[in-house]
UniProtKB/TrEMBL annotation:
The lineage of its organism: Bacteria, Pseudomonadati, Pseudomonadota, Alphaproteobacteria, Hyphomicrobiales. SUPFAM superfamilies: Nucleotide-diphospho-sugar transferases, Trimeric LpxA-like enzymes. This is Glucose-1-phosphate adenylyltransferase. GO terms for biological process: glycogen biosynthetic process. Residues 296-399 form the Glucose-1-phosphate adenylyltransferase/Bifunctional protein GlmU-like C-terminal hexapeptide domain. It comes from Fulvimarina pelagi HTCC2506. It is an enzyme of class 2 (transferase). It catalyses: alpha-D-glucose 1-phosphate + ATP + H(+) = ADP-alpha-D-glucose + diphosphate. Gene3D superfamilies: Hexapeptide repeat proteins, Spore Coat Polysaccharide Biosynthesis Protein SpsA, Chain A.
């Protein structure tokens, strides 16, 4: 059984998560962030899935109901959406990642899976969990922790594994100032991906023991895993052993992204406009499943100088109409309308946005449903952008409907 932890807000995404949880944030033109973990599970042969939700879950639950309702109990498949529902206590929400599993132990036991794969629902990557499961069984581990190989001094923001030659974890350090290096590789560290494999019985026993500890923070990374490490039963599984690479580009990096900041989110989306992007969303051997709306094709109209519907190095989703506007290195989600003489450059435009005539937008993210007034310019005046919108130190502007409403009132 795959158990996806999808209750977090993702506060570093600022206004993007004011109305939705981070796993429900749109990504890549058609999908949501959570679709990557769920698709990895399906493509790995896992047909029992649970998703724990909590913060502002309506958008996420609606997406799961629309796009992930194809499981058939008659084929021993199941898909459980598990909101925090005070199953343990009437006044207790999920207190941490471990508690989000603990409160649903009865449901897990009802399905009776042999193994549990615990997944974070807010990362972008493609991975075959079956390889990690096999590694867990072969090693006889109590827990197997998915790990990224990262430059050692870039691992200060992660939980870092100290391992021996057999990749048995000898120490687990949370956000260390001086991360421990891998054996024989002094400049590389192993950072936790928030992916864990357990035998179900062992996991349930560990969760029940943790629930009795009043000093516990009810977290896998802070409590459950470190305790298992001390008892000598934890092993690391390197992501590059089970990452899915495109057959067209087998030498590409082992792609994994935490799109947890505005800059990282914008960059990961814009990366998809590369001629050969580091993440291949066109690979039909490992598809990313999602809710596919029934919409008409994208449309480009007008063909006169200065008023030509045209896109270069961009992704344009269905039901978009580019009416005499231009876009470059941009990504448009479903249902965008771009009017004449407007320009988009390195823009990530979420569903149902409207771009007015003569508007110029550069290095920006437009949240769902934003209507850009005629002639508005974003991305050219840093001081004005910072006054009107959410502008990062790297110059990326996040634009939301309340921001545009406020701007209209001021004018």
């Amino acid at each position: 059984m795959a158990y996806v932890l999808a209750g977090g807000r993702g506060s570093r995404l600022k206004e993007l998560t004011d109305t939705r949880a981070k796993p429900a944030v749109y990504f890549g033109g058609k999908t949501r962030i959570i679709d990557f973990a769920l698709s990895n599970a399906i493509n790995s042969g896992i047909r029992r899935i649970g998703v724990a939700t909590q913060y502002k879950a309506h958008s996420l639950i609606r997406h799961l109901q629309n796009g992930w309702n194809f499981f058939r109990p008659g084929r021993n498949e199941s898909f459980d959406i598990l909101p925090a529902s005070q199953r343990v206590s009437e006044d207790q929400w999920y207190a941490g990642t471990a508690d989000a599993v603990y409160q649903n132990i009865e449901i897990i036991e009802d399905h009776a899976p042999k193994h549990m794969v615990i997944l974070a629902g807010d990362h972008i990557y493609k991975m075959d969990y079956e390889i990690m499961l096999q590694s867990h069984v072969d090693s006889g581990a109590d827990v197997t922790v998915g790990c990224l190989e990262v430059p050692r001094m870039e691992a200060t923001g992660f939980g870092v594994m100290h391992v021996d030659e057999s990749f048995k974890i000898t120490d687990f350090v949370e956000k260390p100032k001086d991360p421990p290096a891998m054996p024989g590789r002094p400049d590389t560290a192993l950072a936790s991906m928030g992916i864990y494999v357990f035998e179900t019985k062992f996991l349930i026993d560990a969760l029940r023991e943790d629930a009795k500890d009043p000093s516990s923070s009810r977290d896998f990374g802070k409590d459950i895993v470190p305790k298992i490490v001390k008892n000598g039963g934890a092993y690391a599984h390197r992501f590059n052993r089970s990452v899915i690479r495109s057959d067209n580009e087998p030498t590409h990096e082992a792609y994994w992204r935490d799109v947890g900041t505005i800059d990282a989110y914008w960059q990961a989306n814009i990366d998809l406009t590369d001629v050969v992007p580091p993440l291949d969303i066109y690979d039909r051997n490992w598809p990313i499943w999602t809710y596919a709306e029934i919409v008409p094709p994208a449309k480009f109209v007008h063909d006169v100088d200065g008023r030509r519907g045209v896109a270069t190095s961009s992704l344009v989703s269905g039901d978009c109409i580019i009416s005499g506007g231009s876009l470059n290195r941009s990504l448009l989600f479903t249902g965008v309308r771009q009017r004449s003489y407007s320009q988009l450059d390195h823009a990530v435009v979420l569903p149902k946005c409207r771009i007015g005539r003569h508007a110029r937008i550069k290095n920006a993210i437009l949240d769902r449903g934003v209507e850009i007034p005629d002639g508005l310019v974003i991305g050219e005046d840093p001081l004005l952008d910072a006054k009107r919108f959410r502008r990062t130190d790297q110059g990326i502007c996040l634009v939301t409907r309340p921001m545009i409403d406020k701007l209209r009132l001021e004018q």
